[in-house]
Automatic annotation (TrEMBL):
<keyword id="KW-1133">Transmembrane helix</keyword>
<feature type="transmembrane region" description="Helical">
    <location>
        <begin position="233"/>
        <end position="256"/>
    </location>
</feature>
<feature type="transmembrane region" description="Helical">
    <location>
        <begin position="71"/>
        <end position="89"/>
    </location>
</feature>
<feature type="transmembrane region" description="Helical">
    <location>
        <begin position="39"/>
        <end position="59"/>
    </location>
</feature>
<dbReference type="Pfam" id="PF05982">
    <property type="entry name" value="Sbt_1"/>
</dbReference>
<keyword id="KW-0812">Transmembrane</keyword>
<feature type="transmembrane region" description="Helical">
    <location>
        <begin position="101"/>
        <end position="122"/>
    </location>
</feature>
<feature type="transmembrane region" description="Helical">
    <location>
        <begin position="134"/>
        <end position="153"/>
    </location>
</feature>
<feature type="transmembrane region" description="Helical">
    <location>
        <begin position="262"/>
        <end position="285"/>
    </location>
</feature>
<dbReference type="InterPro" id="IPR010293">
    <property type="entry name" value="Sbt_1"/>
</dbReference>
<feature type="transmembrane region" description="Helical">
    <location>
        <begin position="174"/>
        <end position="193"/>
    </location>
</feature>
<feature type="transmembrane region" description="Helical">
    <location>
        <begin position="199"/>
        <end position="221"/>
    </location>
</feature>
<keyword id="KW-0472">Membrane</keyword>
<feature type="transmembrane region" description="Helical">
    <location>
        <begin position="6"/>
        <end position="27"/>
    </location>
</feature>
<protein>
    <submittedName>
        <fullName>Unannotated protein</fullName>
    </submittedName>
</protein>
<feature type="transmembrane region" description="Helical">
    <location>
        <begin position="297"/>
        <end position="321"/>
    </location>
</feature>
Amino acid sequence: MENSLSIALANLTSVSVLVFILGFVAARFKSDIRIPDPVYQIISVYLLFGIGLKGGVSLTHSSAQGMVRPVIATIVLGCLIPALAFYSLKYIKNINEVDRGAIAAHYGSTSLVTFTAALVFLDNSEISYEGFATALLTIMEIPGIIVGIFLATRHLNRKVSWGTSLKEIVLGKTIILLVGGLIVGAISGDAGYARVEPFFVNLLPGILALFLMHLGYLAGVRINIIKESGIRLFLFAIIFPLVAGTLGVIGGYLAGLSVGGATILGVLSASASYIAAPAAVSIALPEANPSLSITTSLGVTFPLNLTIGIPLFYAIAQLLIG
């Protein structure tokens, strides 16, 4: 427990957390330190493909048999979490069924940046984890969005463009780059990866820091929308990810993952998408208010996971697995 506390304190003073706070404070003082959109897109591609590539190389050292239970646990969590989010939001009176489904889709999906921050946290703390972690990220990305959209559209008097929505989910930038990176990494192996490792590994902490500063700025800009939405939605964005993350850690424990692996599954379960889900939801649920989904996921849940969630889920995993 003492080790978990020291790691948690170190996380709060890490560059990742501090630059996020810097971006948030800058936004509150109306200082525009946003990253230009073309640079934002380049960094997104770098993170998505780089994480996929590293995961693909690690897959070559993993056994298919060892992946079965974690994959099943990930799929179950990917379906369960958006359903829990949808019915939890029922107690917030000013949110209709479509918006509940949209928010549930965001919380059922995953956050690449939160996942990356968790990997950096574990690497810096010298905590090992399974090589197929990126595959779990990719797997959880899809069912959460589908379940959220399904729950939102059950009572709508119109046809949902499932074909277009599924195409956006499966062929969108997030899945293509992650899966593409996994395939390239698995084929090229250690020898091929060694040639590009300085670019995708050595530069990652610095590039991630810039990205987090930008996200901190966006969170600071959007925080006023949370105030307008009421205290219950704010509490949901804090309490629900902590519950979902704990379920994820328990799922990792039951699936036989290591402490690091269970921590990652907890982080994935607690995270909420603000890249893949918004695109798919905007197609399937044009009636939904995107401000509610993106603001809760980016303005509240993301900083919560970055500062408290990641070390908390590690502590829970350590308590369960030892």
